Structures are given as C-alpha cells and as structure tokens.
Amino acid sequence: xxxxxxxxxxxxxxxxxxxxxxxxxxxxxxxxxxxxxxxxxxxxxxxxxxxxxxxxxxxxxxxxxxxxxxxxxxxxxxxxxxxxxxxxxxxxxxxxxxxxxxxxxxxxxxxxxxxxxxxxxxxxxxxxxxxxxxxxxxxxxxxxxxxxxxxxxxxxxxxxxxxxxxxxxxxxxxxxxxxxxxxxxxxxxxxxxxxxxxxxxxxxxxxxxxxxxxxxxxxxxxxxxxxxxxxxxxxxxxxxxxxxxxxxxxxxxxxxxxxxxxxxxxxxxxxxxxxxxxxxxxxxxxxxxxxxxxxxxxxxxxxxxxxxxxxxxxxxxxxxxxxxxxxxxxxxxxxxxxxxxxxxxxxxxxxxxxxxxxxxxxxxxxxxxxxxxxxxxxxxxxxxxxxxxxxxxxxxxxxxxxxxxxxxxxxxxxxxxxxxxxxxxxxxxxxxxxxxxxxxxxxxxxxxxxxxxxxxxxxxxxxxxxxxxxxxxxxxxxxxxxxxxxxxxxxxxxxxxxxxxxxxxxxxxxxxxxxxxxxxxxxxxxxxxxx
Length: 531
Ligand SMILES: NC(=O)C1=CN([C@@H]2O[C@H](COP(=O)(O)OP(=O)(O)OC[C@H]3O[C@@H](n4cnc5c(N)ncnc54)[C@H](O)[C@@H]3O)[C@@H](O)[C@H]2O)[C@@H](O)CC1
Ligand SMILES: Nc1ncnc2c1ncn2[C@@H]1O[C@H](COP(=O)(O)OP(=O)(O)O)[C@@H](O)[C@H]1O
Ligand SMILES: [K+]
What we know:
Blueprint: H1 5-17, H2 22-41, E1 47-52, H3 56-70, E2 74-81, H4 85-88, H5 93-105, E3 110-114, H6 122-129, E4 133-137, H7 149-160, E5 164-168, E6 190-194, H8 199-202, H9 206-210, E7 212-216, E8 232-234, H10 237-240, E9 258-262, H11 270-281, E10 286-291, H12 293-302, E11 307-310, H13 314-321, E12 328-331, H14 339-350, E13 354-357, H15 360-363, H16 368-380, E14 386-387, H17 391-398, H18 413-424, E15 427-430, E16 436-438, E17 444-446, H19 459-472, H20 477-495, H21 501-515
Parallel strand pairs: 1-2, 1-4, 2-3, 4-5, 5-6, 6-7, 8-17, 9-10, 9-12, 10-11, 12-13, 13-14, 14-15
Antiparallel strand pairs: 15-16, 16-17
Bound molecules: ligand NAX, adenosine-5'-diphosphate (ADP) and potassium ion (K).
The site of potassium ion (K) has 11 residues, from strand 4 and strand 5.
Keywords: ATP-binding, Isomerase, Lyase, Metal-binding, Multifunctional enzyme, NAD, NADP, Nucleotide-binding, Potassium
Binding site for AMP: 431-435, 460
Binding site for K(+): 57, 136, 172
C-alpha cells in the first residue's frame, strides 16, 4: 500500500493517539537513516554532512548524526531554522519538540543557519564539497511550498556535488501530496522511507529523483491505517496473483472467454491483429477479428487460430455482438478516428460485454456532445469498461478534470486517472513510463516495471490484447488491467532492448505461463497408487 504525505501525517497522529511514543518513532527512523548512510560509504571512511530542516525531517537527521558519530564516523550537522519561529512554525508543537529533543541528544557541533538567509556562503559550500555522503533531512512530509532562497540554492549546490546523497523520507522539494516538484529538488542516490512508500516515490519525476529506494519499519503498523482510505498500491504480482484465471479440469474453451476485436480498414489492419493475436496467446478460449470485406484477405493471410468474420457496417457489427459466447470486445487499435469507430464503441458498450477501448476508440470523440454520448454509455454499461489512454488520448478525452480535491494542486497523473475513472465509472489505464491504473471505486495502482524500450509502435495494441484476454477469462476489470500492465512490462524487460511489438506479443504468453497457478497444478497426471 502507498500513502500520501498527508495520510502519513495522519498515521503519525493516530500512532500518538494510540499511545505510541512519537520520539521513539523518530529514533527508529534516524537509526534506519544511519544504517543506509553507512551502506552508501561502501566500507570506506568518510565524512557525513547532515542538512537538517526545521521540522521532524530535520529531527530524523539529528538522530542519524548521533548514531553515525557513535559508530565512529566524522559527522557535520547544519541546521536550518526559521528566524521568527512563531511566525513560521508548523503549528504542531509536539512535532517541533521531537525535533528539538533530537538535537538536544546530538553531541557534536551544529552550524546554524536561518532559512531567511539569502545565499549559500563559503563555509556551507566548503562543507558540501568536503563531505562524502550528504544526508538530506531538509523537508519531508511537511513540505508546504516550493523551495526558495537559501534552501533552493543549497539544493542546487548539493546536486552539483560529488558526494553521494541520501534523502530522508523524500528528496527535499518533492511534494508527497501533489507528487510533483515545483522548483528545485534534491536528486538523491538513495531515499530511505518509513513504514510505507508514497505514490511520489514511483511516479515521475519522483521515481528518478529518489534513486534507489529503501523502506524501514519503525514501529508503525496496519493498526494506524484508516480502513476508509482508497487502496493505492505499487502494481506487483502479489496484488493480482490471487485473481489470475483458474482452469477447471473439465473446462471448455468458452469457459475462457471469446474476444471480439474490431479490425482497422485495409491500410491499417496490423494494430488490431496484434491485439487479437495477443488476446488468444494469453489464454482466451477464442478470438474473432471482425474485418471489412476489403481487408479480409489481408487479415486472413496473417492469421491462423484467430477467426475472421466479415463486418462492413454497424448493423453487421451489432449482429456479431449478439453472439452470447462473445464476452469481451476490443475497439480502437488502427480503427480510424471516425463515426464508424464511435458507433462500434457505443454498440459494444451497450451489448453487455467486457469492453476495452483503446487508441482511436478514445480519440474519435472530437466534440462535447460526442464525448457526452460516450460517457453516458460508459456509465450505463453493465460491466466496468477499460479505457487505455496515453497522455495525448487522455487529454483529448478528459481535458480539464476536477477530482473534487482542489486543495491538491497541481494534480498528478494519479489524481487525474482516479478522477477520470470516477467520472465515467470505468477502469482507466493512464499509460506512460509510470502507468497508473485507476478504478471507479477509488482504488489505484502505479506500475513501475516497464522499461523505456516498451515505448515502441504497437506496444499499446498488445497491451489492449492481454488485458482483454484476462478480462475474457474472468478477471475483474481492475485486476485484469493491473495484471496486463505488469505482464506487458515484464515481457519487455525479459526481451531487453531493442524490441518490437511483435516480439512483445510472442513473449507475453511466457510471462502469463510463469505466473499462472494452473501450471503449478499438474493437470493430466493420473496418480496410480500400487500396493
Ligand atoms: N510516521 C511518521 O510520519 C514519521 C515521520 N518522521 C519524519 O517527519 C517528517 C515530517 O515532519 P514534519 O511534519 O515536521 O515536516 P517537515 O520536517 O518535512 O517540514 C516541516 C517544516 O518545514 C517548514 N517548511 C515546509 N515547506 C517549506 C519550504 N518550502 N520552505 C521553508 N520551510 C518550509 C514548515 O513550516 C515546518 O517548519 C517526515 O518526512 C519524516 O522524515 C519521522 O520522525 C518518523 C515518524
Ligand atoms: N518511457 C517509458 N518507459 C516505460 N514504458 C513506456 C514508456 N513510454 C511509454 N511506455 C509504455 O509503452 C506503451 C506504448 O503504448 P501506446 O502509446 O499506446 O503505443 P502505440 O499506440 O504505438 O501502441 C504503453 O504501455 C506505455 O505505458
Ligand atoms: K528530505
């Protein structure tokens, strides 16, 4: 599970309400920072510089300093305080007291600066240049505004320094609520976080700014979580494995679903074939490609196990949709940005099928009344549809969205995907380097296993295919989308760079195979007991 900075602060407060000593939490956090800092030195001797901010993030830094000094390392501490404490204080005196207690335990020298000071001076510059590991304990969950003045300059100096940088909780400047950076931010080699990661650690730019991520347990537990918080997870197999398709011993191919894919016209049939082929190879029982008569022979020349059906107009499409055995439909890949794609998308949504709308089925709603028609059909659909937009498609479809939480500005891809999912009651797979999968009930997942070479022509068509395949085999829309996105990234990782969408489509079945519980079950074996 992932928690925003605000939720983490709530966890902290709940812990205190439940009788957990907040200073002990800080001591555990500081010790974890020290452990990670030592690892960064890689068994060499060296100097640590702790840059400590005015809040509890700085307190963690002070505890780490004392711990490191106790282990015999040379440590320099610089504390940045608010000049007029009363005017600038966070208002939470208990938090300030913990940080002050931490500094009271620090036995070494503290160089004190005020945040109002205008420039990084020579002394500070030298301390940065002479250190081997810089511990960034400036700001964590309590960051309220962009870094300015002295700290902004300081961050720029640190980012240019040769020292390794260890960020405490988050790299200072990364906002744990908006998940973004407004202005400058520390670029860390390693980030140590406590209890649970934040979405900002896995969304860009945070994912890159954090460097390696480590998680330390400091005495918090599920007992401090609010069960009403919508689930946000890192998309990993543990999350979707229990939902993967299970095959009955006497199962029929129709038990594993029948996927219908709408082909593009003669000059653009490849995309839908990639989707269809992937859907079949990832386990769907049957796949049919509905193709115009003029494209039929081109499609036929490339397909064997995927079936073909002629379909020249919306009436024929609706007739095909009447087949009750077809349980899942893909519309969009290579289909064309036109009225026919709009009509076929609406008909699919109205036909009580699981629907994956991708590519042109997301781009063809060019005016407001078109979009309203789509949104109405999505809201009325019997099954939760799955939309798979990349950034351009998302912006065309959803434009300016409000997620009802206007205090969090600017909104990240996570906020936008969740808002879109809620608006149209569909699962939204917001594709990118940090693909977000959002469900209408507020659940969300951030995917982090996809390598950059996955961005290749046709990769999206393959993704639509695997998601539809899993959906056809009985997985819920959200779980099918999460599993499909992860498997897609994993297949690309296994292939390595360079890679084409065709390679991806042929590799995906191996990923499904490796994860599927059915391959561990030993079907077809007859146990013969001899006495
Ligand atoms: N369970 C938890 O949540 C725990 C949290 N701990 C630490 O506590 C941190 C959160 O502490 P706080 O809530 O005190 O917050 P921070 O220490 O992140 O910062 C708050 C202080 O910074 C000031 N400030 C915020 N943005 C500023 C800006 N742009 N320029 C100048 N000043 C700014 C605020 O006025 C306030 O004084 C976490 O990040 C973590 O490191 C740990 O001590 C262990 C337990
Ligand atoms: N930098 C990146 N790192 C990892 N995955 C990426 C990156 N950029 C794009 N992707 C993924 O590549 C796929 C591209 O899909 P899409 O944009 O629909 O391409 P196409 O339309 O060519 O099929 C998506 O799954 C997306 O999440
Ligand atoms: K920090």
